[in-house]
Fold this sequence. Notes:
The chain has 12 helices and 12 strands. It is an alpha/beta fold. Strand 5, helix 6 and strand 6 form a beta-alpha-beta unit. Helix 2 packs parallel to helix 8 and helix 3 packs across helix 4.
Amino acid sequence: MGLPDWVPVRDELRELEPYGAPQIRDIINLNVNENPYPPATSVVADIAESVRAAAASLNRYPDREAVDVRTALAGYLGHGLTPERIWAANGSNEVMLQVLQAFGGPGRTALSFAPTYSMYPEYARDSHTRWVTGQREDDFTVDPDRAVALIGQEQPDVVLMASPNNPTGTALPLDTVEAVLDAAPGVVVVDEAYAEFRRAGTPTSLELLDGHPRLLVSRTMSKAFALAGGRLGYLAADAAIIDALRIVRLPYHLSAVSQATALAALRHADELLARVDDLRAARDDLAAWLTARGHEVAESDANFVLFGRFDDRHAVWQGLVDRGVLIRETGPEGWLRVSVGTPAEMSTFYTALEEVTAR
Ligand code: PMP
């Protein structure tokens, strides 16, 4: 495809396609790791009322520093965090782009371990940062010794590691994060978009923030919090790191409507997170079901499972679409990723997968 010649776009962008999973209407969406449960009526009412109240002053710019939202997020995260150690933006995608804008850039290097979240190289591209990937092991864990060796060689300004990792579901032990922090000369981002889904005993890198000023822990309201449409991602770090992000953010980047929505959602955190335990149990059931049918399954601490391997994964994906179920064709060749849905959605998926793989 590519853009027409007359469009004076940057050369390296000309042949590229915009990133994104297929969006298909009237299908069971198990492809973008959303929480399948919409907010309860009472929560919807409070969000609507909060947005109505914000609408009365939409002639004014919003709070540029989003202090109330950052205060509420600090309260939600705990760990002694305060608003000056929290940053928020339109999804953790924007947060991490800002991290690359502030800490990456021309002549600088960002590093991650593949397979991992496919937006990371795009943040690097868009901030003109050199992009380097190490490889995860066969079980998708990160080997600390190999990671430290690669970091020593590449001297990255930014290390990006998702835990639990997308698309594999793999969580990082804290000693791996600490080894990376000790070896890395720059900032280390642990992307905990799926943290609320982690299994009992799996730690969070929030525990390492004190004493590690170059550690940044990113979170989002898009997954467990059931607020993907609200676009609110955030990050916890040292206050001086947050000050660096404030330099590159656009003024008023979080709209008054976004801030009102997030604040109302945070007031109802317990209700919005109420189904997380059900989803974790359904994730474990899903992994067990797939294993029992002879599939390879990656250990998951997230709300999705990577499974395989298929000689023709596209045919399996298409067979599922034909039966009304959309999952994600992503990850290493031969693997597919499925998000955890409602019990009804899972049973449709199970039936459809049995039909497709029986052929
Ligand atoms: N990090 C990871 C690992 C993700 O999987 C996603 C969403 N797919 C994001 C970050 C971005 O989420 P959002 O921008 O909605 O916060």
